[in-house]
């Protein structure tokens, strides 16, 4: 399968030019370079994508440094992680050195080591994010799909790559629900069984990482759908006992989305609506579990007080 023509139509001109520079530099170093993950998924689905992720079988930071043009922002490089971010006009591209990874224990951040593109794809969360598109000349546009992601996209399925996926990183449960709701997909049956089996592994995830996943959910076009699904799967209660999200909360969040809110205000409102069923001790438990800012916890407490006064 080759998507070079579709790729050219899909990309904006700034991104197109920057990817060409990256591919040319990689070719001079005998390195292969791939568009990976979300951009490939969204290209196949015909959806726009703002985040461009590129994997290099080689030294990504040095390639980023070589292609940065005079007058453009210098690349932001993290040599210890083998990553760099490039900006050019409207384009933003994250370059990552291909890597393999392993988990010392459930919930731990992975130990990474240099790898090839197949190893890099094998570490992904779901098959729909485990595809790559070659950018180098000669094979440009060729799709690498070792885990059947394109077939799962066609059938609307969210599928993990292996049976310990949720144990290694339980935040994948929250991301999987986001993909379900964003694309109108469903969990593949075995994946759903694994999720229900491994809900308790949410306890292995730090509060900061869980809070980040919830706030990514709040950024969705219709976050109430994902939150209702999280509630139905008992992932909210597994995160913090007593946390739930019902029909009234969904209606309230839909109303809130019509207001002109800054991103910070929207996050605060979403937290308040999500947590309004908690009592004082539940609010404190949520704050402690997810390391919420005190100002957000105070907003939640005020919201709970208002719901108690509403009948009066």
Properties at a glance:
single chain, 312 residues, alpha+beta, seven-stranded mixed sheet, two-stranded antiparallel sheet, 11 strands, globular
Write down the secondary-structure element order.
Answer: HHEHEHEEEEEHEEHEHHEHHHHHHHH
**Which structural class matches the secondary elements?**
alpha+beta
- Total number of helical segments? 16
Average pLDDT rating: 91
β-strand number: 11
Strand-residue fraction? 5-15%
Indicate the percent of residues in helices.
Answer: 40-55%
Unreliable sequence segments: none
Radius of gyration, whole Å: 21 Å
Task: Determine the N-to-C terminus distance.
Answer: 64 Å
Please provide a written account of the structure:
50% of the residues lie in helices and 14% in strands. The chain has helices spanning 4-10, 13-28, 38-45, 60-67, 117-122, 149-155, 165-168, 171-183, 189-197, 207-218, 223-232, 235-239, 247-256, 263-275, 280-290, 294-309; strands at 32-36, 52-57, 76-78, 83-88, 91-97, 99-102, 111-114, 132-134, 143-144, 157-158, 186-187. The protein has a seven-stranded mixed β-sheet with strand order 3-4-5-2-1-8-9. It has a two-stranded antiparallel ribbon with strand order 6-7. A two-stranded parallel ribbon has the order 10-11. A hairpin with a 2-residue loop joins strand 4 (83-88) and strand 5. The radius of gyration is 21 Å and the shape is globular. The relative contact order is 0.08. The mean pLDDT is 91.
């Amino acid at each position: 399968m080759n998507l070079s023509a579709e790729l050219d139509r899909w990309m904006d001109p700034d991104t197109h030019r920057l990817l060409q520079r990256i591919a040319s530099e990689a070719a001079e170093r005998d390195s292969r370079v791939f568009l990976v993950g979300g951009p490939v998924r969204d290209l196949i689905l015909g959806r726009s994508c703002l985040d461009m992720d590129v994997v290099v079988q080689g030294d990504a930071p040095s390639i980023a440094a070589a292609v940065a043009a005079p007058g453009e922002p210098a690349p932001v490089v993290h040599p210890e992680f083998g990553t760099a971010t490039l900006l050019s006009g409207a384009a933003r591209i994250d370059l990552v050195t291909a890597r393999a990874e392993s988990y010392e224990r459930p919930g731990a951040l992975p130990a990474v080591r240099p790898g090839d593109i197949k190893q890099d794809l094998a570490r992904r969360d779901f098959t729909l994010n485990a595809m790559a598109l070659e950018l180098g000349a000669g094979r440009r546009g060729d799709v690498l799909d070792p885990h059947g992601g394109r077939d799962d996209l066609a059938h609307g399925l969210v599928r993990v790559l292996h049976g310990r996926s949720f144990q290694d990183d339980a935040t994948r449960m929250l991301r999987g629900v986001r993909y379900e709701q964003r694309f109108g997909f469903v969990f593949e049956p075995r994946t759903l069984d694994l999720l229900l089996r491994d809900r308790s592994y949410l306890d292995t995830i730090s509060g900061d990482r869980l809070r980040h996943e919830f706030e990514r959910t709040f950024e969705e076009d219709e976050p109430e759908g994902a939150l209702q699904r999280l509630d139905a799967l008992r992932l909210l209660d597994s995160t913090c006992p007593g946390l739930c999200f019902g029909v009234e909360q969904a209606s309230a969040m839909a109303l809130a989305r019509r207001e002109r809110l800054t991103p910070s205000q929207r996050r605060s409102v979403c937290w308040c609506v999500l947590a309004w069923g908690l009592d004082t001790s539940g609010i404190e438990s949520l704050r402690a579990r997810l390391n919420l800012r005190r100002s957000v916890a105070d907003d939640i407490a005020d919201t709970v007080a208002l719901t108690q006064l509403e009948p009066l």
